[in-house]
Amino acid sequence: MRKNSRRDRPELPSGRRSAEAHDADTFRRGFVSLTNLALSGVQITASAIDVSTEKVLFSIDDHLSVPTAGLGKVLLLIEVAARLTQRDASAHGLLERTVVDSAAEMGLWQHLQVPTLPVADLAVLVGATSDNLATNVLLRRVGIDAVRARGEALGLSRTFLLDTVRDHRGPDDAPHFSVGSARELATLFRNLAEGAVVDVATSQQVLAWLGLGADLSMVSSAFGLDPLTHLHSDHGLLLVNKTGSGPGIRSEAGVLRGPRASVAYAVTMRFNDAELTGRLAVLDGMRTLGTDILEYVY
């Protein structure tokens, strides 16, 4: 498919599909579906990369840095994992939750009686349920500056964790929890899968935490996996992903291994969330792209 020109079609996102995919029609459905969403006013950034060859299979405005909601917690997990594998003393011990750390909605710790947990257990909660309270307690321990420095060391220039999780953002707060580009996020997950983020041990630890993730409601809804248990290969498929969700934002990045190939991907959609139909259309578009990814790897 010819890359759309913004000069000719200013309402469409710029995008491309690889002509060398396994099937000439691979990613056609996703491209059409996401283009239709863009015509309805949805802002889309997306990238899909073959893990082995690093070939870009699919992209839509993947250079743009956009709000990614809780997806930025991956950067925190990388910093925590690096400290654990490097036997940094700050990565050990019990951490206590405080009123200052409180953030409602996502997560389980706010519903549990236990007031303190080990650092590694908090990382499990973040990986499994995107736990907001656990995120803030870990950020208090390692510091946002350290997370930013780690991201810069990994070569990230458009993907950042900006702030703690907040129930309300005031004029003096960062406007978003995290931002990122689809290209960088897909590449980051590709590098995690290849053991190239910090080192093999760090990459494997992050993958182990993210492998517990229970949110398969977006792109990964097309893969047919059990949301509560997909740590091991199922019908030849193995998934590791992280999602981000907020008002008018749905974001997911991950890597799917299959019998034929492996794909690292990232998709973020910003939309008018005033009506349920708009949200459902976005989720349907993400699932369609997931179907194309599944077809490529299977």
TrEMBL record:
Keyword set, alphabetical order: Hydrolase
Pfam hit, one: Beta-lactamase2
One annotated GO molecular function: beta-lactamase activity
UniProt name for this protein: Serine hydrolase
Residues covered by region (Disordered): 1-21
BP GO annotations: beta-lactam antibiotic catabolic process; response to antibiotic
Gene3D superfamilies: DD-peptidase/beta-lactamase superfamily
Domain Beta-lactamase class A catalytic: 48-268
Keyword Coiled coil belongs to the record: no
InterPro entries: Beta-lactam/transpept-like (IPR012338), Beta-lactam_cat (IPR045155), Beta-lactam_class-A (IPR000871)
Origin: domain of life: Bacteria
